[in-house]
Amino acid sequence: MSLFVELVGFLASAVSLVLWWPQAVRVWRFRHDPSGLGGVSVSTQVLLLANAALWAVYALLTESFWVGAPGLVNAPLAVGTIALVRRARLPRAYEEAVR
Predict the structure, then answer these.
(1) What is the pLDDT of residue 7?
(2) In terms of Cα–Cα distance, which of 45, 44, 47, 38 is closest to 88?
(3) Model pTM?
């Protein structure tokens, strides 16, 4: 594979990583504040996780590392985001159910 093609793959992977980083930082910053997590969609994070898994399988089948590389970071970010958002929202959902 040419150096140019590898460079394009690297840049595409870098953009994919940077794309979700602000969301992960916001979730981490507001992990104890459910109101700060109001705009975070758990279903979007589940889709991100599924997307990362599918690209990883595709990368293995085509032997193209850069296609699957973003999933190495995005999948754990999605899992962490889902866990933190659900944990932050759990007490509020419980309180509303008790009322």
Answers:
(1) 83
(2) 38
(3) 0.73
The C-alpha atoms of residue 69 and residue 25 are separated, in whole angstroms, by: 20
Distance of CA 90 to the CA centre of its chain: 20
pLDDT in tens, 31-58: 888 888 888 889 989 998 998 898 888 8
CA distances from 18 to 1, 39, 66, 84 (A): 25, 19, 15, 20
Distance CA 82, CA 84 (A): 6
CA atoms within 13 A on the CB side of 35: 0
Q: What distances in angstroms separate CA 6 from CA 13, 17, 23, 38, 48, one per listed residue? A: 10, 16, 27, 39, 24
Give the rounded distance of the alpha carbon of 27 from its chain centre: 11
* Residue 82 pLDDT: 92
